[in-house]
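**Sequence, structure tokens**
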Amino acid sequence: MPDFTLERKLAGLHDGPVCGVDEAGRGPLAGPVVAAAVILDLRRGRRGVLAGIDDSKKLSEDRRATLFAALRQQALQGHAAIGIGAASVAEITRLNIFHATMLAMCRAVTALGVTPAHALIDGKHCPKQLGCPATAVVGGDGLSLSIAAASIVAKVVRDRAMEKLHRRYPAYGWDRNKGYGTEAHQSGLKLAGISPHHRLGFAPVQQQMTLDIELTN
């Protein structure tokens, strides 16, 4: 289970808060990539709301929603800070998914409203223009409570965005697959074609685009 070991170590080295940063949506064929940055009150320890926080992939949809609401309440009470950033499909196409993800992370940290003394980034890479020192933590959502909280926030925000898009573009089943390349999604691509929210640089979308061009010629 994630805890505050990394945060407390860094807090002892820096004068200021430590945030955790994670993203959701690097792999889907459609929709934005969303990042979240979260600062938690280290003095509160792993109890109350924080006792239930874990890597978002290990939690049910209902549990994520409950913890997301609780984290927002913690922020309103001054016990946490939450920043959310995203990169659009157009930015993913222009920059590629890696650089778009780094951009979303930078935006999430900026959205905190306070400059962290240090950021813990889930994964192997840190954004170059984050505005504060950072450490990449492989598997960070299973180690750092702040990163785990960020993983929940990013996942819930992105899932809800895809559910909203589904109401406008129901052919792809985004309410269920959230833009990932499931069989239902790819069947929708073949039947309805490419939407404005598909990532043109991703192989299945490129293949459909080529097929659409061939059919019109």
Q: What stands out?
A: The chain has a mean pLDDT of 93. The helical segments are 5-11, 61-76, 89-95, 97-110, 145-168, 174-177, 183-192, 203-216.
